[in-house]
């Protein structure tokens, strides 16, 4: 079965990991700091807090932004559930804004209609690898004293308006799952423009530990002392994972180039095929394509999905609208809330897209899908 996504691991990646295993630090060591610094350099020079997953990154980000009961978080339903659930777990009400029909990115006009004085965070998702319209979203957040969050699990390495992912929103979260644009095995990171938010993110992911003597409330202990002012969790990334991440970052540009090449071949092959609709690229955006989401029209998505799988091509669907999940539906969210997102979901199939996909593999995908819809 040809997978729809897969990690690319080189001998240099393996050597980087084994070097850590032979060293003195398995976690909370120099590789973690080096990885965070390297991600910071890629994402605009801001504070980076690495962590154990993209979901952990979202939990950290919302906590660092002070999200809690009584707050509202506006987000898109066209995402993995964690973008919404991590805010809900902290007590916030999640408000879903519909997506643009062409880009599948959160619609700033829809967001504007839903923004109130209770809005704490506007959380966009860089669906499939291209940045949302943060130039339009940021003024909406600023108007009510909210913050913007970019769920950039799909888009590390991309740019918009010449600015890198990580520099477009107040806080950005990243994922390093194996199918993403680079991997640490499992892993993620939070990028914070405001150093104070960055420090809160760091302490939350480090069990809440405060190690700055100037902030101690207990002042008569020795040099070993550390204390907790607010609850935190252990979401620390290991040096083993960080070493893999550092090595992968060196290949990110090549990964992005290959993903762009495959996307261009799919676009060319499917652009004029009746019954298919290719992705739309937003003006001014240089995506780091993570998914190739093609739309199968005329109610044939499931038929085509099952036929592609039967032909040995591992397509996927990304994603069921978040509020369709029972955990949200049981709270009163109803289908029909975001028509564009629901229509997109009814048509979407993600085709194989990863750096080690060969030209022959791409040809096979193109030929199989074209025949199925012909």
UniProtKB/TrEMBL annotation:
Keywords attached to this entry: Pyridoxal phosphate
Active site (UniProt): 180
Identification of the protein by name: UDP-4-amino-4, 6-dideoxy-N-acetyl-beta-L-altrosamine transaminase
SUPFAM superfamilies given in the database record: PLP-dependent transferases
A molecular function (GO) term: pyridoxal phosphate binding
InterPro entries, alphabetized: DegT/StrS_aminotransferase, PseC, PyrdxlP-dep_Trfase, PyrdxlP-dep_Trfase_major, PyrdxlP-dep_Trfase_small
Gene Ontology BP annotations: polysaccharide biosynthetic process
Coiled coil: none
Family membership: Belongs to the DegT/DnrJ/EryC1 family.
Modification N6-(pyridoxal phosphate)lysine, positions: 180
Cofactor: pyridoxal 5'-phosphate
């Amino acid at each position: 079965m040809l997978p729809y996504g897969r990690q690319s691991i080189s001998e240099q990646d393996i050597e980087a990991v084994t070097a850590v295993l032979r060293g003195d630090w398995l976690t909370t060591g120099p590789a973690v700091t080096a990885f965070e610094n390297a991600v910071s350099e890629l994402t605009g020079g801001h504070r980076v807090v690495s962590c154990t997953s993209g979901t952990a990154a979202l939990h950290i980000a919302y906590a660092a932004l002070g999200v809690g009961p009584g707050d509202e978080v506006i987000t898109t339903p066209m995402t993995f559930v964690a973008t919404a659930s991590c805010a809900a777990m902290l007590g916030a009400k999640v408000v879903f804004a519909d997506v643009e029909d062409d880009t599948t990115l959160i619609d700033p006009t829809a967001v504007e209609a839903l923004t109130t004085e209770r809005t704490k965070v506007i959380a966009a998702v860089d669906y499939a690898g291209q940045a949302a319209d943060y130039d339009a979203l940021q003024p909406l957040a600023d108007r009510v004293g909210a913050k913007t969050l970019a769920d950039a699990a799909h888009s590390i390495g991309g740019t918009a308006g010449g600015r890198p992912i990580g520099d477009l929103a107040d806080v950005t979260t990243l994922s390093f799952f194996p199918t993403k644009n680079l991997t640490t095995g499992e892993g993620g990171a939070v990028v914070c423009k405001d150093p104070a938010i960055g420090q809160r993110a760091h302490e939350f992911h480090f069990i809440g530990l405060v190690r700055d003597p100037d902030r101690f409330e207990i002042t008569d202990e020795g040099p070993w002392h550390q204390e907790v002012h607010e609850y935190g969790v252990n979401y620390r990334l290991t040096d083993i994972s960080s070493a893999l991440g550092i090595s992968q970052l060196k290949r990110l540009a090549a990964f992005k180039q290959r993903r762009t090449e495959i996307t261009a071949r799919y676009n060319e092959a499917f652009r004029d095929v009746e019954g298919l609709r290719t992705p739309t690229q937003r003006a001014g955006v240089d995506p780091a394509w993570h998914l190739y989401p093609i739309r199968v029209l005329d109610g044939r998505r499931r038929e085509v999905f099952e036929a592609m799988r039967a032909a040995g091509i591992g397509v996927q669907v990304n994603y069921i609208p978040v509020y369709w999940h029972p955990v949200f539906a049981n709270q009163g969210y109803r289908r029909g809330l975001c028509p564009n997102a629901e229509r997109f979901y009814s048509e979407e199939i993600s085709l194989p897209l990863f750096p080690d996909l060969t030209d022959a593999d791409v040809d096979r995908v193109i030929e199989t899908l074209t025949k199925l819809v012909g």
